[in-house]
Specification:
heterodimer, A: Rossmann fold, OB fold (Dihydrolipoamide Acetyltransferase, E2P), 2 domains, 6-stranded mixed sheet, 5-stranded antiparallel sheet, 9 helices, B: mainly alpha, MetI-like fold
Chain lengths: 350, 218
Amino acid sequence: MGAELTVRGVRISRGGREVLAVDHLDVKPSEHLFVLGPNGAGKTTLLRLLAAVDRPDRGTVEVDGVPIRRLGLAERRRIGYVTQRPALLSTTVLRNVELPLRWRKVPRPRRRAQAQAALERLQVGHLAERPALALSGGEQQRVNLARSLACDPDVLLLDEPAAGLDAEARAIFFADLDHALSDRAVTTVQVTHRPEEALRYADRVVVLVAGAVRQVDMPEMIHRMPADAAVASVVGYDNLVPARATPDGGVRVGDQPVGPVAGNADPGPVVVAAFANALRLGSTDQAGLPAVVRGVSPGPGHRVVLLDGQLPDRRVRLIAHLGLDEPAPSPGDLVSVRFDAALSAVVPSS
Amino acid sequence: MVDPVYEVLARSALVSLTASLVAAMIGIPLGTWLALARIPGRGVVTALVNTGMAVPTVVVGLFVAMLLWRSGPLGDLDLIYTVRGMIIAQVLIATPLITSITMAAIQLLPPELPGHLRSLGANRWQVVSRIWVEARLPLLAAAMAGFGHAISEVGSATIVGGNIHGHTQVMTTAIVENVGRGEFGVALVYGGVLLALAFVVNGVLASVHQRSGAWARS
C-alpha cells in the first residue's frame, strides 16, 4: 500500500522571489500523479519537498500524517527519489543498486538478488558488472530507476526520468516503467513538461505555472477543459487567441464569429485555445478571423501552415495543421480562419 | 659519529609518513566539513586554512618549538628535540594543504550528490563516507601532497628536532649539516636516497591513483 502525501500552505522563496506556492494538494495512496508545467514552474522544487530533501519556508508537507521535518531515517527510506540527472556512483551497476539496500541492512545474498531483479525489470540486468559511469544516458536512467525500485518504496518520486532520451527511447522507457510499477502499490509523483506523457500515464494531473497550482484534475478534464490560458498552453494547445464571449453564448474574435467553440464562459474577455488541427481555413468571403499565410512547410502526416491573424488592434500568430489531401494555401494568401469546436476550448484569459 | 644512511632514512620515513597520516585524519574531515557545511564563519576558517598553506616551515618550527620548549606551555611533555615533537610540527605543516585540497575536491563533485545520497536513504556518516569514495582520487592526491610537503621540509625539523645524531636527524637536516661541513658527496648521497624514498612512496600512491582512475573511466 502506497503512502498518502499532503501539502498545505507551502511557500518557498529563492533570492527574495517566491518560487513555489501550493495551498492544498493531496496525493492518495497508490495514485499516479503527474506534475505538469513549463521549465522553471517549480516542479522539481515541489518534488524535492516531497522527497524531504528540502524544507518549506512556510507550510507543511506530510507523509501518512507525519510532517517531513519529523521524518526519521526509517520513514525517509520509504521514499524513492529518481532525479533528472542519474547521479550514479563510481562503482559497478550492481553495486549502485545494492548500496541503498546495504544501508538498509538487507543481508548480502538477499540484496544481491533484489538488486539483480530490479535491474532485470528495467531491462538492464546484463549490465550488472559494468562500471555505471560508462553507460549511455538511457542506460544510466534505467539503473537510476532500478536503484529506487529495488528498495521497494511506498512513494516513488520521478523527476523527468527520461529527460535527454529520444522519442523512441522515451516510449520504450515509459512502457518498461509502467510494467515495472504494474504489480506494485506505490504512490507515484512524476514531474514532466511533456503533456503527452502526463495525459497518457497519469491518474490525475497537477498543472504548475510560475510556482502556483493552476489546475488539478483527471487527464481528460485537463485536456478538454483547461482552467485558463496558461494551463491550455502547458497542455499543448498551439493557438491562444484573445476573444470575447457574447451574452448569446457565442464567441467573437475581433468582430468576427469564429464558429461554435466548447466551454462555458461568462460574457467578457476570453481566450480561444485551439489545437493546430482545429483551425479550418476558408476563403475571405466566409465568416471567420482574417489571416495572412506566412509560410507552409511539410510535417509528419500533415502540412504546417503559419498565419498572422488580423485582430483589429494587433496581429496574433497562428499555427494550423492541414491534411495532405487538403488544398494548401501559398504564402501571402489571405484566408478566413474558423475553429473546430471539438478541438478547441474557450478559457478565461488569465 | 655519523648515523648510517638507512637509520636516518627510516627516521625520515617514520616522521613524515606518521605526520601525513595524522594530517590526513585531521585535514580530510575538516576539508569535508568546510566544503559541505552551510554555517556562518566558514569563509573565515577557509581563509585561515589557505593562509596556513603559505606559512614558511621555519615559522611553524619556531611556533612549535616555543610551545614545546622546557619553559613553554607544553614543556612538561618533554617533546622538544624528539621525533614526536617533529611529527607534531610536520602535522601542522601538512594539515592545511590536505584540508584545502580536500575542500576543493569535494566542491568539484556534483552539488546535488549529498542530497541525492540522503534521498537514497543514507545517514550522515554514510553520506560522508560515500563522498570520500567518490572523491578518492583527489583525496589520494591530497595525501601525496601532504607527504611530499612533510618529507621535503627542513626548517621545522631543524628547529624542533635539533638534528641530534642517533635521535632526531632526518634526511633533510643531514643534507644541510653535510653541506655546512663541505661534505658535498655525502650530502648528494643523502639527497639521492631522499629522492628515491619520495619516488617510491609517491610511485605507490600514483599507481593506486591511476588504477582507480582507469577503472572509473573504463
